[in-house]
C-alpha cells in the first residue's frame, strides 16, 4: 500500500527525521491559510499523488506569498498530472502539500528496501539525489552505496555511519545523517514497509539536513498489525475495480488485456495467464477467487470481470479442491441472473463435485463453451475472439 508524501512526512516527524513545516490542503483557500501560518520566505506547493516525478511534470511550485500559494493551489488542484510514473492518462490531483520552502545546497538520496535475492534488507544512499534512483543506477551505478542488513541482527551503527560518511556530508551534519539513516531503518522494520525513501534529502544554505520528499510503501501482509496506517489509505489513488474486489475479499489485479480470468488458486491463475499469452492473447486480469470461495464471492468476481470494458471473452478455470465445482457453478448461475452476460464464456472444470457442477451449468441454459483442459480452454478463447 502506498501513501502520500504529506503522510510519509508526518511519520518521518514521529521518528525524528526533520521535515519542512507545512500541512495538507484540498482547497486554494486552505492553501493560503497554511502558507500564511508559515511566516516569511518561500513556500512550496506540491501535488499529492501516488507517483513520483511530480517536479518535472509541473506538480511542484515555489512561490513567495500566501496569495501566490493560493494561485498555485488553484492551478494544481484538479489538474491531470502526467509524470514518468503515472502513465499517459495522468492522475487527478485532489490534495496538495503546502510547506516552507527550502534553500537547497545539495540533494542526496536515501532508501531502504528488500533485496529478495540476497534475503536481506538493503539500505541505499547516494550523493546524487533529486533524480530517480533508477536513473542513477543506470547511468552512474558507482554513485549508489549500499549496506546489506541481516534482519535478525538489524542495522548496526557502523553501517549507518559508513552510509552517512559516503554522502559526503559537512562534518557538523554527519551525526544527524547517521540518525536519519537509523530512523529510516527503524520505520522500515517497525511499520512493516516494503520501501522507505527520501529523495531528495537536502542540506540547506542554513546548514540543516532536511527530508524534502518522502515515500513509504507498506507490505500489505503486515497491515493487520497497523490499524492506524490502514487509515492512511487513499482509495482515489487505486484502481477502482481493485478497490471493489478487495471489499469482497477477492485477490484481483487489473491488467490490460481482453481475456477476463476467473480461477481458483494463485498458481493456477498464473498458469492460466501463461496459457492465454501462449496462444497470443492477453489476460484482462489476475483473479484468484481462493479455496474458500462462496457462491457469493464467485458472483462478485464475475461482476468485477464484466465491468471491465476491455474484456471480450471470459475464461473460467477451476480445479475443484476446497472450492467445490458445484459451488462455483451456483455462483456463475447467480451472476448470470443478475447481469446480462453477452460475452463468450469458456469454462474448464475439474475436481471435487465436477459432475454436479457440470449438471448445474447445463441446466442453467447459459451459453457456455466447455473445455477439457487448459490448452483446449485457451484455444477456444482464441477462436471465439477471432470470430468476433
Ligand atoms: P518528485 O519530483 O515527485 O520526486 O517531487 P520532489 O518532492 O522530490 O520535488 C522535486 C524537486 O523539486 C526536488 O528535487 C527539488 O529540486 C524541488 N523542490 C521541492 N521543494 C523545494 C523547495 O522547498 N525549495 C527548492 N528550492 N526546491 C524544491
Ligand atoms: Mn522526489
Oligomer classification: single chain
Distance between the termini: 39 Å
Mind summarizing the main beta sheet? 6 strands, antiparallel
Q: How many DSSP E strands?
A: 18
Please state the structural category: alpha+beta
Strand content: 25-35%
What percent of the residues sit in helical stretches (DSSP H or I)? 25-40%
Number of H- or I-type helical stretches: 14
Query: Low-confidence parts, pLDDT < 50 over ≥5 residues?
Result: none
Task: Spell out which ligands are present.
Answer: guanosine-5'-diphosphate, manganese (II) ion
Backbone CA Rg: 26 Å
Categorize the overall geometry: elongated
Summarize model confidence as the mean pLDDT: 93
Keyword list:
388 residues; alpha+beta; 6-stranded antiparallel sheet; 4-stranded antiparallel sheet; 14 helices; 25% strand; binds guanosine-5'-diphosphate; binds manganese (II) ion
Structural write-up:
Helices cover 37% and strands 25% of the residues. The protein has 388 residues and is α+β, with helices and mostly antiparallel strands. The strands form five sheets. Strands 7, 8, 9, 10, 11 and 12 form a six-stranded antiparallel beta sheet that branches. The chain has a four-stranded antiparallel beta sheet with strand order 1-6-2-3. The longest helix has 17 residues, at 174-190. The mean pLDDT is 93.
Amino acid at each position: 500500500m502506498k501513501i502520500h508524501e504529506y503522510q510519509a512526512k508526518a511519520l518521518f516527524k514521529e521518528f525524528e527525521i526533520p521535515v519542512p513545516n507545512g500541512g495538507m490542503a484540498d482547497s486554494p483557500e486552505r492553501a493560503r491559510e497554511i502558507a500564511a501560518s508559515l511566516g516569511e520566505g518561500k513556500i512550496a506547493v506540491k501535488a499529492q499523488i501516488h507517483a513520483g516525478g511530480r517536479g518535472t511534470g509541473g506538480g511542484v511550485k515555489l512561490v513567495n506569498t500566501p496569495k501566490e500559494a493560493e494561485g498555485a493551489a488553484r492551478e494544481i488542484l484538479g489538474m491531470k498530472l502526467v509524470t514518468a510514473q503515472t502513465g499517459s492518462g495522468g492522475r487527478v490531483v485532489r490534495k496538495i502539500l503546502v510547506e516552507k520552502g527550502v534553500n537547497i545546497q545539495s540533494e542526496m538520496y536515501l532508501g531502504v528496501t528488500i533485496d529478495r535475492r540476497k534475503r536481506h534488507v538493503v539500505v541505499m544512499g547516494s550523493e546524487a539525489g533529486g533524480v530517480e534512483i533508477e536513473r542513477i543506477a543506470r547511468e552512474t551505478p558507482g554513485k549508489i552505496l549500499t549496506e546489506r542488513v541481516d534482519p535478525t541482527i538489524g542495522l548496526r551503527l557502523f553501517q549507518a555511519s559508513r552510509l552517512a560518511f559516503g554522502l559526503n556530508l559537512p562534518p557538523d551534519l554527519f551525526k544527524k545523517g547517521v540518525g536519519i539513516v537509523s530512523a529510516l531503518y527503524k520505520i522500515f522494520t517497525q511499520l512493516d514497509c516494503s520501501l522507505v525513501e527520501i529523495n531528495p534529502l537536502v542540506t540547506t544554505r542554513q546548514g540543516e539536513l532536511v527530508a524534502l520528499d518522502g515515500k513509504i510503501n507498506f507490505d500489505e501482509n503486515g497491515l493487520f498489525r497497523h490499524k492506524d496506517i490502514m487509515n492512511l489509505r487513499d482509495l482515489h489513488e487505486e484502481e477502482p475495480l481493485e478497490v471493489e474486489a478487495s471489499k469482497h475479499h477477492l485477490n484481483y489485479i487489473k491488467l490490460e488485456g481482453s481475456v477476463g480470468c476467473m480461477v481458483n488458486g494463485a498458481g493456477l491463475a498464473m498458469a492460466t495467464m501463461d496459457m492465454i499469452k501462449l496462444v497470443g492473447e492477453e489476460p484482462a486480469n489476475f483473479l484468484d477467487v481462493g479455496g474458500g470461495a462462496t457462491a457469493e464471492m464467485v458472483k462478485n468476481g464475475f461482476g468485477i470481470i464484466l465491468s471491465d470494458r476491455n474484456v471480450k471473452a471470459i475464461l473460467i478455470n477451476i480445479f475443484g479442491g476446497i472450492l467445490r465445482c458445484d459451488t462455483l457453478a451456483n455462483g456463475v448461475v447467480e451472476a448470470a441472473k443478475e447481469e446480462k452476460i453477452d460475452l463468450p464464456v469458456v469454462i474448464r472444470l475439474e475436481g471435487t463435485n465436477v459432475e454436479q457442477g457440470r449438471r448445474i451449468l447445463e441446466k442453467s441454459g447459459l451459453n457456455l463453451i466447455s473445455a477439457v483442459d487448459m490448452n483446449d480452454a485457451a484455444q477456444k478463447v482464441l477462436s471465439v475472439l477471432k470470430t468476433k
